[in-house]
Amino acid sequence: MGISSTSLQNNRADFPLRWTRLAATAAIALGLSYGVAAAQPVTFQGATFVNKGLVGVARVPSDAVDQFGETLGGFGSSMAMDLATWHRKFDGSYAGTLYMLPDRGWNTQGTVDFRGRMHRFHVTLTPFTGASTTAQDQLKLDYRSSTLFLQAGGVPTTGLDPTGVRPGMFGTPDLPIADNGHVPVDDEGLVHVGDGTVWVSEEYGPYIYHYAKDGQLLHVIRPPDAFIPMRHDANGNLVENFSANSPPIGVTLNTGNPVSGRQNNQGFEGLAMSPDRNTLFVLLQSALIQDLDATSSATIKLTRHNTRLLAYDLRHEQPKLVGEYVVQLPLYQDQTTTKPTLLTAAQSELHALNDHQFLVLARDSTGGFAVANPGSVYRSIDLIDISKATNIAGTDADKVGGQVAPKGVLNPAITPAAYQPFLNINDNAQLNRFGLHNGAPADGNDLYEKWESIAIVPTLDPKTPHDYFLFVGSDNDFITQNGFMAGQPYKDASGFNVDTLVLVYRVTLPTYVPPRQFDLSLARILDDLDHDLEKILDRH
Hints:
This protein is mostly beta strands and 540 residues long. It has six helices and 31 strands.
């Protein structure tokens, strides 16, 4: 049944404490233990979801490079498995093709002309269920190639901050434009459809782009006007202004936040597709600027938890908005004060379980390796359900400045999505088994701040048909002391080298419906042949 905004907000305050209620004794009594780890069950909407523990880790060095000779970083912003290639091998290991998405490039000291792209990896997983290991190679990521995303005319995109607007043409909407004349994107969400195409959501627009297998642009989805960043021009007129206040290296400016639309750097982080591949879902990282208290950066952090999820029907010549729902993000205690102060754990990824339930990756910020505080308070894979939530699509909430939560207080007439914490990434009992940890000491085994991607693959175990492997990836922000991008070498000013990590959990997902596949067991054979052939060529 639906829950009120008041009760949901009250429940958010004790989220970190609720992990302690997942008692190991209850798990053992239910016979749910896996390996040496005590399973952690959660009941949500009448079904029991189970975290059976961490079974694998992958680590990619911070100075790895892609086929263009540029730093292979940031690719944990999103990921998608080509499920047609996923299979179990004779030795009990698993293999398949994984696509991973970098965002706008190295930008800790200013944005650069990074061309948007998607990376392809051949992955091999050998699950580990023992007590502990120092190895972090149960999951192997073998980089194979990259595909550049190309706008009209075959022009690559850029990571530079938008400085203008290109009027809509040839069926595309108004698009942000950078000083170099290219369309800026800050890619954050990825869906591998299964027909050779991919959908990508990003933060600058925030827009959703549909690309062909070769990276050529096919379609663009512009969200309702309420999402489009608007600022006052020199004459006081309210106009589209896509800047994220992220100037290039060496440039100083301050555009501030928009007065309507997405906040700076809080665009479309989560993207998912229904199992029948007919509906595309996209989730804003946190609230629109008009759905919070924008008085100051402090008030924004305290009031940005009413975000919005959009649903588009793809069975039309142009994708049609058919659903829009409020998702109330979890809250956590601000660690810089002893005074009760709840901050929002913004979301970084969305993955569909079926046509109304999703996994959401929500996390705090400024906690982890290479940042001010070595420990994170909230970093979690959570469950949401929109079946009882109020559909506000097509209402006044979609107009410029349209609100659902003035000053961050949800309109009581609106029922938000149901929300439940599920898998605690910060669980040191699991991390320590692989030599990892959350919190001090601040070393390379302390999880980095940003965890932003999810993929699900079957265990192919007939004894547990609802068991899956859940991949969770980090975005290392291209932080390295041996980097190369946009024709220039670089060293991040932090002085750190931050490797990319991918964690793999075994989980029970009773309501998960696997996506419809367009093909083809042959893809699995070709995937292995391609991998083996390239290994032979590498040796010679």
